[in-house]
């Protein structure tokens, strides 16, 4: 019998064209996503070399990072943003790459539209010039973010050169408590192991919590793998995965599908396969989470207090700097802190289940007067679902408005910027200083926590509503 | 993108003993709108370096004359643990390079940032936490103290005392940096092998 292999090894090894001695592997890339921000310099480089795009059919483009979320039918006002969007249009047309630009009915955040159109499949290698490419690992793909030099590499050669990361398994067993969402699970894990706790590793998520999770939940979890430093996260494909993909527009059909199913079913970690690190957590210890600091590892159960400096893994000086930026102090309770903004959206929590969850709490309530809420669907498909399912009516009745798809306030590259000093409860992925606008203060949380804050105007335990 | 090759670098250093310096601090997203790779150094550490009215923040290290008006421009940046975490934006590495740094030293780098540095000709040097502490202490004692980063020998040395440590880098990347090569040159040379492999993929 051959040596037992991990899921990660199976997929990685199937893509290695060559191993460079005392160097990286040459890894073949099945799918490459590009967007307007990290691709223009790659195309310039390609042009400088006079090299063609080797396999234009394996690259898919969308505009998302730098697009407005209101009045998308009008010309983009910011000339620099407009120029970047135009560059993507010109470059994709020149090289014959599929482009779902602003206004296209399938346009949306790259990590939302890939899965929802069936472009992402189990067993693939997927890269994109965006660190949250780890999202696609939910399907049993090896997916990770790359820099612009590597974008150029993939365009030119459909390969990148990467040293093989180490392997970590994170198992969560048991049953999740009331109002505990996939976002809480991943925020909890990051708080336990810190924002750098998985650097150098590729993480497989295992155990009944992930087995019982929907594909959208798995995407939320894998999405934030990078926030603990991991190159990516991966979950073994199962019937939930196949049910999600079957019939999606770009997924294989009929015989082609049937032929792939046995391969996909082989994609799980063999008994006895070894991990460099193996961690286990108990679902019962996870409550709804919220962050209080300026990296995603600085979070806690919502009913708890902000830890004292000695209790955190970051250096005390950096920790105090972080609390000072947030305007918080050690030992303070999170519940009851007044907030100014709520952001529902991003590649982490901009899918239909997130909007359903948000609506389940705001239904029959009113948005607090002191709160500005930006609700941004991850794609036009999600936007249509919100309307068709009657969620828009619930939101409107509660005093909320829906914006148009894009990355929006997650990275605040467009005009959706949280003002300096203001507090935002955000369903996005990063609470770095200034991430949501210069001086903005971000509290990362689930859609349920965001909804509870939106109707009360302060940090509120969502379990009070359920 | 071509870059100058890297062999032996001697320079005083800029100390930044802060943990978890993420790429949003190195270059905030609102400065990522360019379609060409130039001028990013002007916005390196923008919000730590400048007030909202664009006046320099006096207490930020890059604005501190102790580390700027003392001889030639410093080419080594020494950061705290988990340097370069967060976004994959290569613009962070471009900004560091464009500002004039050729080497970043830390006890712990984020993966994507480290790759990006290597791809644009910046040498990321991972040192032990103890050696990082000794570098910070040496700079504090004498801000003009020089470091030598020797890529062929894979060593980093505090020149005043000779205190030295070896650092790791894989032979392939070392060869590239020493010669100013990049991965694309390598990959283009194996095009037919890649095309044959692509034919075997099921999707």
From TrEMBL, chain A:
GO terms for molecular function: 3-isopropylmalate dehydratase activity; 4 iron, 4 sulfur cluster binding; metal ion binding. Its EC number is 4.2.1.33. Residues 9-457 form the Aconitase/3-isopropylmalate dehydratase large subunit alpha/beta/alpha domain. It catalyses: (2R,3S)-3-isopropylmalate = (2S)-2-isopropylmalate. It is an enzyme of class 4 (lyase). GO terms for biological process: L-leucine biosynthetic process. The lineage of its organism: Bacteria, Pseudomonadati, Bacteroidota, Cytophagia, Cytophagales. Pfam families: Aconitase. Catalyzes the isomerization between 2-isopropylmalate and 3-isopropylmalate, via the formation of 2-isopropylmaleate. Signal peptide: none annotated. It comes from Spirosoma sordidisoli. Keywords: 4Fe-4S, Amino-acid biosynthesis, Branched-chain amino acid biosynthesis, Iron, Iron-sulfur, Leucine biosynthesis, Lyase, Metal-binding. This is 3-isopropylmalate dehydratase.
Automatic annotation (TrEMBL), chain B:
Pathway: Amino-acid biosynthesis; L-leucine biosynthesis; L-leucine from 3-methyl-2-oxobutanoate: step 2/4. It comes from the Bacteria. Pfam families: Aconitase_C (PF00694). It is an enzyme of class 4 (lyase). Residues 5-129 form the Aconitase A/isopropylmalate dehydratase small subunit swivel domain. InterPro entries: 3-IsopropMal_deHydase_ssu, Aconitase/3IPM_dehydase_swvl, AconitaseA/IPMdHydase_ssu_swvl, IPMI_Swivel, LeuD. SUPFAM superfamilies: LeuD/IlvD-like (SSF52016). Keywords: Amino-acid biosynthesis, Branched-chain amino acid biosynthesis, Leucine biosynthesis, Lyase. PANTHER family: 3-ISOPROPYLMALATE DEHYDRATASE SMALL SUBUNIT, 3-ISOPROPYLMALATE DEHYDRATASE SMALL SUBUNIT 2-RELATED-RELATED. Catalyzes the isomerization between 2-isopropylmalate and 3-isopropylmalate, via the formation of 2-isopropylmaleate. Belongs to the LeuD family. LeuD type 1 subfamily. Heterodimer of LeuC and LeuD. This is 3-isopropylmalate dehydratase small subunit. It comes from Spirosoma sordidisoli.
């Amino acid at each position: 019998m051959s040596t037992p292999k991990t899921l990660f090894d199976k997929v990685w090894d199937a893509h290695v064209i060559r191993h460079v001695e005392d160097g990286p592997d040459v890894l073949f890339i099945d799918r490459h996503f590009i967007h307007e921000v990290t691709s223009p310099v790659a195309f310039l480089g390609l042009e400088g070399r006079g090299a063609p795009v080797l396999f234009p059919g394996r690259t898919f483009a969308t505009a998302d990072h730098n697009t407005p979320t209101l009045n998308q039918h009008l010309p983009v006002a910011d000339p620099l943003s407009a120029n970047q969007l135009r560059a993507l249009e010109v470059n994709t047309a020149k090289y014959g790459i599929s482009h779902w630009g602003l206004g296209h009915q399938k346009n949306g955040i790259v990590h939302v539209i890939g899965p929802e159109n069936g472009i992402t499949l189990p067993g693939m290698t997927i890269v994109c010039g965006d660190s949250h490419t780890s999202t696609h690992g939910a399907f049993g793909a090896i997916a990770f973010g790359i820099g612009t030099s590597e974008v150029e590499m993939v365009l030119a050669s459909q390969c990148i050169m990467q040293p093989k990361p180490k392997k970590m398994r994170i198992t969560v067993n048991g049953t999740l408590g009331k109002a505990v969402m996939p976002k809480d699970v991943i925020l909890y894990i990051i708080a336990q192991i810190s924002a750098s706790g998985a650097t150098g590793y590729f993480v497989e998520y295992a155990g009944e919590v992930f087995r019982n999770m929907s594909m959208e939940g798995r995407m939320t979890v894998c999405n934030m793998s990078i926030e603990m430093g991991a190159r990516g996260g991966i979950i073994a494909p199962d019937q939930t995965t196949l049910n999600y993909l079957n019939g999606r527009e770009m997924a294989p059909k009929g015989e082609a599908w049937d032929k792939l199913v046995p391969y996909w079913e082989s994609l799980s970690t063999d008994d006895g396969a070894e991990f460099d690190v193996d961690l286990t957590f108990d679902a019962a210890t996870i409550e709804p989470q919220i962050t209080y600091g300026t990296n995603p590892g600085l979070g806690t159960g919502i009913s708890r207090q902000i830890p004292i400096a000695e209790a955190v893994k970051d250096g005390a000086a950096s920790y105090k700097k972080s609390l000072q930026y947030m305007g918080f102090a050690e030992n303070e309770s999170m519940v009851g802190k007044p907030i100014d903004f709520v952001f529902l959206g991003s590649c982490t929590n901009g899918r239909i289940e997130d909007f359903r969850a948000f609506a389940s709490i705001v239904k029959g309530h009113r948005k607090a007067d002191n709160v500005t809420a930006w609700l941004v669907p991850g794609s036009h498909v999600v936007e249509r679902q919100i309307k068709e399912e009657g969620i828009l009516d619930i939101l409107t009745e509660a005093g909320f408005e829906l914006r148009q798809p894009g990355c929006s306030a997650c990275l605040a590259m467009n005009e959706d910027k949280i003002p300096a000093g203001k507090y935002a409860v955000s369903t996005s992925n990063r609470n770095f200083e200034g991430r949501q606008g210069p001086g903005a203060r971000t509290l990362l949380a689930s859609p349920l926590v965001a909804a509870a804050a939106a109707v009360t105007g302060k940090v509120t335990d969502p379990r009070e509503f359920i | 993108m071509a870059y100058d090759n890297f062999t032996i670098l001697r320079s005083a250093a800029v100390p930044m003993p802060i943990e978890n310096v993420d790429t949003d601090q190195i270059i905030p997203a609102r400065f990522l709108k360019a379609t060409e790779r130039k001028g990013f150094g002007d916005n390196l550490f923008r919000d730590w370096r400048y007030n909202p009215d664009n006046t320099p923040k006096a207490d930020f290290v890059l604005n501190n004359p102790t580390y700027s008006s003392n001889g030639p421009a410093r080419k080594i940046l020494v950061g705290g643990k988990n340097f370069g975490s967060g976004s994959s934006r290569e613009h962070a590495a471009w900004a560091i390079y464009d500002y004039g740094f050729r080497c970043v030293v830390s006890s712990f780098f984020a993966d994507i940032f480290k790759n990006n540095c290597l791809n644009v000709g910046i040498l990321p040097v991972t040192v032990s936490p103890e050696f990082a502490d000794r570098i910070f202490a040496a700079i504090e004692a004498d801000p003009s103290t020089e470091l030598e980063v020797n890529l062929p020998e894979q060593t980093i040395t505090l020149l005043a005392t000779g205190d030295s440590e070896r650092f790791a880098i894989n032979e392939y990347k070392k060869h590239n940096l020493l010669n100013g090569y990049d991965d694309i040159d390598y990959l283009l040379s194996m095009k037919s092998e890649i095309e044959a492999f692509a034919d075997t993929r099921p999707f």
